[in-house]
Protein: SHSP domain-containing protein
Amino acid sequence: MSLIPSFFGNRRSNVFDPFSLDIWDPFEGFPLSSSVVNIPSSARETSAFANARIDWKETPEAHVFKADLPGLRKEEVKVEVEEGGVLQISGERSKEQEEKNDKWHRVERSSGKFLRRFRLPENAKTDQVKASMENGVLTVTVPKEEIKKPEVKSIEIAG
Structure:
């Protein structure tokens, strides 16, 4: 068993995958305490939610991305295709409003922004991307171009 996956937090993405453009957070997994003064609170909030988990599978017809985004509405999520065939999924979960009389015992749900980018293969139809959100799961479908098989013509041998 390699030490590298456990060192980087057992992430499922592959460092050698040319299609993955994950944003690596060097502080992921480190406990944040009040002694961390050089990191602004907005950066800490972003890093807490930056690792939105996304699955990417390829079917014969399309590339399908599924992201678990519990508690987010579709208005809080943005799906874009950039020039060069890069799929970008981003969004923001707002912090819950604090009342002056509230006493918090535990805060475990993360808030902040997330951004994930994936370089799509050349056979992706980037002009036909579809996205839907149901029960906190975002599904992005990128159809694939049909691979044209080269036409083989039989030649009759005379003689």
The CA atoms of residues 93 and 111 lie 5 Å apart. The first strand starts at residue 54 and ends at 58. Confidence is low (pLDDT under 50) at residues 1-12, 33-48.
